[in-house]
Amino acid sequence: MINQSWFSRGLLAGLFVAAFGATGGITYAAEGSTPDSTPSAAKAFAPPAEASMPTDEFGKSIKLGEQIFNHTPEFAGKYVGNPLNCASCHMDAGRKPNSSPLWAAYLLYPAYRSKNGHVNSFAERMQGCFRYSMNGKAPPLGDPVLVALETYAFWLAKGAPVGEKLPGQGYPKLPPPALQADYTRGSQVYAQHCALCHAADGQGQSSGGKAVFPPLWGAHSFNWGAGMGEIQNAAGFIKANMPLGLGNTLTDQQAWDVATFMDSQERPQDPRFTGSVEATRAKYHDSPNSMYGEKINGRVLGAP
Amino acid sequence: MSDVATNVSSRCVLAMGVVVAVVLGLASTARADDMMVGKTIATQGTAKGVAACISCHGAQGEGNAAAGFPRLAGVNAAYLSEQLSAFANGERKSTIMQPFAKLLSSNGRSAVALYFSSLPPPAGIKAGDNTAINPSDTGAWIATRGRWDQGLPACAQCHGPGGIGVGSAFPPLAGQPAAYIESQLHGWKKGARPPGPMALMPVVVSKLSDTDILAVAAYYAGNVGSSNNAAAAGSKQ
């Protein structure tokens, strides 16, 4: 089903991660340990308790930011193009270590990003979330949505060292898989551990008009520009956080395999599409961790 | 020639239409039959000695808050049917339900599940949670935010906004009697309920104290109009 380059890709992906990925110094529980018993990271930095959120005018903006974060379509509807929430990928309202917590992200901006080739403010970084992960459009800088989200992140980061990468930041960087990551094995992991909630077709499940289990691919999911579309990010997220409430129960191999399966499906076009899949791949997806432009099951991913 | 072709093809379309209509008709007749069988079991019981379900679960399947009998109205048919099978084969323990479930045929269990799933859920259930919850409200907080420093997901993350239920694996919590929710959560602790899909619930209950269980049960019992459930939940606190 999958052409030859697929297999070399898996090997390449492993090498890539070995070379560039293992920089986080993040520790997480050994495989098969108690679910979610993870972080030493949690002890390293604790965001302020919810009860300590101020109730003054500033506090109102924090609260609004938290609501946008947890209920994004309801509170920032005009900027989103799918039913996901920020909290779909940043668990516990952006508080959970190893789930790209907001308190750790806030400290790392302004920062140069190779993704767009210049120094990005935190607000600009969040614009990217709307454009890619939410498959919507970027709120203009200074928009109340961005201001509220930034206020919430600032508050969560209270007392943390600016400019430092804290334990629990981002998603865990998994060591390269022992076996080349494999679509077919991934589909089996998916059926066994993911489909109960996200459905066999990856479209998730809704109830009461809300996406309770977010769509993982297809027209209603994140688009090809999103970080979760890169296999190493998805593998780290899945390992630490999925299945919900059973984080760190999949093996690294299972996480790599199922991330590869998820990220080898159709999803909305990369908004930076140049008009050609080859050129778009060369410019934005020239990585063994992106399947964009690759032929899977007889179809070129990302082809219009 | 073209007339003939048109004739033949319209004939084909007609024939296919008839076949489709008949198949759909049979399916809906079968469903209607099941519904009637289910309704009869629910309202009259069976000659073999199954009591009418509504005598405990309420005339509209709304449940009985005082006795802690769950509401069945509007609950997913596949879920209800699976629970009846689990009672029948002894995986799920209940001195009341096991004998009845064993007396029902597999078809009878499906039929009665279909009937109750077709009834409207109690009025006043909100498909959403208050987004401005005070963290000191333990029940509401666990229900909507969980306790992630302990790895405990929020109930709503699987059971849906307001606990209205999601698909066949995550039944509604909203409008269930507090006593029922409590007994089920304790049931997982004691092994009276089978682990269920992916053994999610035993992990969840391992992180809930008795106080947490009381609080979260009251929260969901309270998500229903002005029925007795809310009052019963309130008086428990």
List the helices and strands and how they pair.
The complex is a heterodimer of chains A (304) and B (237).
Chain A (H helix, E strand, L loop, with lengths): L3 H18 L19 H4 L12 H14 L1 H4 L10 H4 L1 H4 L7 H5 L4 E3 L4 E3 L1 H12 L10 H13 L26 H11 L1 H4 L6 E3 L2 E4 L17 H11 L10 H11 L14 H8 L10 E2 L2 E2 L4
Antiparallel strand pairs in A: 1-2, 3-4, 5-6
Helix pairs in contact in A: 3-9, 8-9, 10-13, 12-13
Chain B lengths: L1 H43 L9 H4 L19 H12 L8 H7 L2 H13 L19 H7 L11 H4 L18 H13 L9 H6 L4 H12 L6 H9 L1
Helix pairs in contact in B: 1-5, 3-4, 3-5, 6-10, 8-10, 10-11
Task: Please summarize what this structure is.
By secondary structure, chain A is mostly helical. Helices cover 40% and strands 6% of the residues of chain A. In chain A, 51% of the residues are buried.
CATH class category of the largest domain in chain B? Mainly Alpha
Distance between the termini of chain A: 21 Å
Query: For the record, what is the CATH homologous superfamily label of the largest domain in chain A?
Result: Cytochrome c-like domain
Helix content of chain A: 40-55%
Beta-strand content bin of chain B = under 5%
Q: Order of strands in the sheet with the most strands of chain A?
A: 1-2
The span between the termini of chain B is 83 Å
Quick one: overall form of chain A?
A: globular
**Secondary-structure arrangement, i.e. CATH architecture of the largest domain in chain B:** Orthogonal Bundle
| CATH homologous superfamily annotation of the largest domain in chain B | Cytochrome c-like domain
Total count of strands of chain B: 0
The largest pleated sheet of chain A is described as: 2 strands, antiparallel
CATH topology of the largest domain in chain B: Cytochrome Bc1 Complex, Chain D, domain 2
Count of DSSP helices of chain A? 14
How many E strands of chain A?
Answer: 6
Helix content of chain B: 40-55%
Provide the domain count of chain A: 2
